[in-house]
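Predict structure. Chain length: 70.
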Amino acid sequence: LRNRMRTSELKTIEKKLRAAVAEGNAAAAAELGKTFASRLDKAAKVGTIHANRVANKRSEERRVGKECRS
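Prediction complete.
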């Protein structure tokens, strides 16, 4: 149950992050990016998500965030 809760939370944060980037809201995207990265790390630490998947997600998040800033 906890794993499902964590993965659901991550999906929700990722959707909000993508929406903020699509709107061009850099401040919200930056804040959500920090939250997303933190929650990803915590999920990897407790074994909910594999560390390599977390690395891929963080890289993707940075790429998406970079598009918003430029």
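Summary: The chain has three helices and no strands.
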